[in-house]
Design a protein that fits this description.
alpha/beta; 7-stranded parallel β-sheet; 38% helix; 4-stranded parallel β-sheet
């Protein structure tokens, strides 16, 4: 039973409420410095995790840490330290006719649980954001990254100890299904759970949890090349969205092309050859690519080709006869994460932006930009695909809640 751990984190969260922003920033900067200083130890732990995973597994890239990636993680942590505190902001202020002074003020959630898979960078990101937002965190990582996560949490705890801060402000649970179940039912102790990972993981958390959940949904992302699209822009955007980093949730899964522009499809797909992207194309697109794209990388699409988050160098192509049909296709197969249109027609772009129901909708830019750091939010805790409380990249403001502060002077309520 993990009740004692949950309660210790809850107690630590109450202590965090007394920390000033200056101390929090010093802790985050110290964590960043220590991550750099302990790069070899972190990579040694990560190597143990990597040795247990097939390098062909799409999750391998997410699991892998390098010196450069640790430097990037440290940079994100410093960015969070540099951001204004999200706490104590007066969101609404009014004085009632009876003299009562009402303020709605931003406050910490308290205890935030994160269920995630093979992404050890999440351990750093979650701690940085939760601490900056005044919350303690309970982490439930996957077994694939357990050695990495334990090394990182030990490093963070050592910094908290140096600052005489309760080390229970961060806890890593055992990498077991049973631990996940206990976390999802820690009512009265855990204030919020955020799942990060596969659709299967997210569905399980949503269906199983009795504590509040914010979904960070799977990313089935589309790019629609309109009849008025610029070919050079299209090729650049689609290549970047597909090949920049295939294992992340904002990577492109399906390119939709207007039938009037099929003659341009070979030029649009030309850059994908360098990364050996496997294309599942419908009949018109298959014919358009037949004499220009490598035969071994070109296959006919099936119904299963659409609505799939590939997390690999694989992409589907769908032909449509109008922007309306493209929007309909996205409505059927999209996950509400990130979608884009490539067009020089302002009217068509505006229609797409208004009618596509997703957390992030782009015009002439790749879905690769759906990221808290890219949005200027610092490191993110996830991309919310739901509409309640938070949507899109969740950073500091999104992991705060609020309460009402009412100042009176002896007023009483009449009947």
């Amino acid at each position: 039973m993990l009740n004692d751990i949950f309660q210790s984190v809850k107690d630590a969260s109450i202590e965090l409420a007394l920390l000033d922003n200056d101390t929090i920033n010093k802790v985050l900067l110290a964590v960043a410095d220590k991550a750099i200083a302990n790069t070899d130890a972190i990579l040694e732990a990560n190597a143990k995790d990597l040795s247990r995973m097939d390098s062909a597994n799409p999750m391998y890239d997410r699991l892998k840490l390098t010196k450069e990636r640790i430097e990037g993680i440290a940079g994100d942590t410093r960015n969070v330290a540099s951001l204004p505190s999200p706490l104590g902001k007066v969101l609404k202020h009014t004085v009632l006719p009876n003299g009562l002074d009402l303020k709605r003020v931003s406050v910490p959630f308290g205890v935030i649980g994160i269920v995630y898979e093979a992404r050890p960078n999440v351990t750093f990101d979650v701690f940085a954001l939760c601490l900056k937002a005044g919350s303690a965190c309970i982490l439930k990582g996957g077994k694939d990254a357990d050695d990495s996560n334990r090394a990182i949490v030990a490093l963070i705890k050592s910094v908290l100890k140096e600052f005489s801060i309760n080390e229970n402000a961060i806890e890593l649970l055992p990498a077991t299904h049973e631990a996940t179940g206990e976390l999802l039912h820690a009512n009265g102790v855990v204030d919020l759970v955020i799942p990060r990972g596969s659709k299967r993981l997210i569905d399980f958390v949503r269906q199983e949890a009795s504590v509040p959940v914010i979904e960070t949904g799977a990313g089935v992302c589309h790019a629609y090349f309109d009849k008025d699209g610029d070919t050079e822009k299209g090729a650049r955007i689609i290549n970047n969205a597909k090949t920049r980093r295939v294992s992340v949730c904002n990577a492109l899964d399906c390119s939709i092309i207007h039938a009037d522009r099929l003659a341009d499809l070979p030029a649009i797909c030309e850059p994908l050859k360098e990364s050996n992207v496997l294309i599942y194309a419908d009949e018109p697109a298959l014919a358009a690519l037949a004499n220009s794209y490598p035969a071994e990388l070109l296959k006919p699409s099936t119904e299963e080709s659409y609505g799939t988050e590939f997390q690999s160098y694989t992409m589907a192509v769908k032909t449509v006869i109008s922007a309306d049909e493209a929007i309909k296709h996205i409505r059927k197969f999209g996950s509400g994460h990130s979608e884009c249109i490539i067009t020089e027609n302002r009217s068509t772009a505006d229609k797409f932006l208004a009618q596509v129901d997703a957390a992030c909708v782009y015009h002439n830019a790749p879905t690769a930009f759906t990221d808290g750091a890219q949005f200027g939010l610092g490191a993110e805790i996830g991309i919310s695909t739901q509409k309640l409380h938070a949507r899109g990249p969740m950073a500091l403001e999104e992991i705060c809640t609020y309460k009402w502060i009412i100042e009176g002077n002896g007023q009483v309520r009449s009947k």
